[in-house]
Amino acid sequence: MSTFRTFENLEAWKACRELRLFAAREIVPVLPSIEKYRLADQLIRSSRSTTANLAEGYGRFHYLEKAKFCSQSRGSVFEVLDHLITAVDEQLITEAYLARGRDLAQQADRLLNGYMKYLRSAKSSSEDSPA
Question: Which CATH number do you get for residue 61?
Answer without folding.
Answer: 1.20.1440.60
